[in-house]
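User: Could you write out the 3D structure of this protein bound to zinc ion? I've included everything you need below.
Assistant: Certainly. Input first, then the structure.
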Amino acid sequence: MLGVQLAELTGAAPDGTEEALDLVAGFDDALAHGLGRLGGERSAALTALAGALDATPLGPAVREAAEKIAAGSVTDEHLAALAGGRTALFGAVHDALLGRLDAALGRTRAGWAEAAIETDAEAPLLGAARSWLQELAITGWRGVDHDLVSASDQAVEALLADPGARRLAVLLDGLAAELRASSPVATMERLPVRRWADLWARALLLCRPGGRSGLVGREEPGGRSGPVGREEQGSVGREEPTQVSGRLLILGVDVHEHATAVQAQVHAVLEPAGGARPRVVRVSVGAAKVDTIVGPAVWRLLDAHPTLLGALAERRGLDVTDMSLPASGDLIWHDDRAALAEPADPFVTARVLLPEAAFPAVPPLERHPVRIAEPVLVEGHRIGDGAVELDGHTLALDLDRLPGLGPLTPAMVTAAEACVGLVRWDGGRWTLQPLAVRGTLKRKPFEAHGGDWAMGPTDPKVVKAEAKAGDAVAVLRERAGRLLRR
Amino acid sequence: MIETAAREQRSAEPVVRPVRPRKLGKVPFVELADGRLQGVVSSGSDLARVYVSSISAATHGFSCSTNNNRPCGGLSGGSPCKHLRALADEAVLQYGLDRVTRYLRVEAGDDDDLMSRLDGTREAAPAAGVFSRFLRHLAYLELPGSTAPIAEMHWFPAVSAEVR
Ligand SMILES: [Zn+2]
């Protein structure tokens, strides 16, 4: 990334985003208070949200919902309309921000072709989740207590048992755990109102018919043999995945986790076999976990993907064969169709391939600023006050996103001479999440990648601490074997 | 540094930090839930037996029994048994003293023994419910993994255990 690019990225917010976020803030305040007893001011916030959507297909439904809810009728349909309206505003903000980023960095990104939304049969499982979300909305975050949180238990348990509902299950479980830890919420000084409204709105949309399919990650049982690497500049993404083969060069790994779920999302460039244009892709592998499995032990839960973890730990490329690649750029991982290749340097991959690579479309339901995670290389910069500086322009470093399962520390990041990271946007500003760093610390050169410990920690101090804590995964798996199957 | 002032406006604001690692052999399950510090403690002598122990936040009353609802012999004297002591110790390791004392609404300094600060007495508690929560907890480890991206996990970044 160049100083001039950073300047363009972090310049004045794109037109309309601040207004949209103000409308969202009004809605979020109403949701914190509870939609069951809106006063005049909060009713006006819902009306304002509806007003912004008047010219869209959602407009009439959102307006009706705002009126009916102000009058005290908080139905499922009305809530879905409001969640849809809030989501549409964030979708527009997402598009404006990602468009800004692509323009600043000179990137070309495919558009999304409208796919026919599959309508799932209405599952009874979703009914329980919806009524809990409705209860939350009526009560408001400030009224949430242990009883209301516990009311989600059965819905979550049933959803977890259905692999097709994993997204919703993982989301609700994460939200419930936060509400449980925060209960009674009335005693909290400051509420994460945008975050919880985000989670609530997304959950409600995932409960709708069609929300579950999510458009990506569906396995093609027969295996399609689509054309490879036909994507051209500005072309429109196809809803049907293509099958791809080629060399996968890892940029870094971004790990997501809450108490009962972990997802490792590997950002990489795919060089398709046959020499087509390189494509930026994401590989996601995930597992269920429990809160007491923390730090490097978390990698053990992903041990069904030894080749992928091996490539992370050994800093190698991967040769992949016939893997499914939807238009979203989410390469669907099959560890048995991958082989370790030569060592690959993410700094070189980022420097050489990112400028010419094609970037994937974002699926409609995923358009939210939180999903923006765009790989960049930063070098030749200075670091001060928790930010990288290029030609006088600054980008804040996210030093919180350096989890204990990898070797990166704030000291390394702030001493880095080169950094491969993800540009993100949250809370009104752009940040850089470091994935791999290289530099000199106490006169010694160092290089650290977030996935270095994927096959186990390499730092003797961490190895010792792990040994002392014992093997949490093994202990709990043994207990599960003894107690769950007798 | 991310300014804390933006907490209300952040989507990926960490609300629950990862717990601290601890050995799980003796006390495989601890939670602050349902108004209690509760958990499951392995029997020292019988691999197939576990004790369900809990301490109420409201009354500081405590209970301990086997998962088959047999009262723990260690409670007969009216003071907390070794299972309850183990539960309290592991809870402090896992959550930190601060979070445990806040949940139990008790004052205790770093040098204090948490159990000695609780003046409750023996009382009945639903052991079966806690035990089934433990089984549910273990059942997570039996769920199949996934290779379909879960976009919603972007709201849950892996973060350091300490606030930075
Ligand atoms: Zn006992």
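The two ends of chain B are 8 Å apart (CA to CA).
User: Perfect, thank you.
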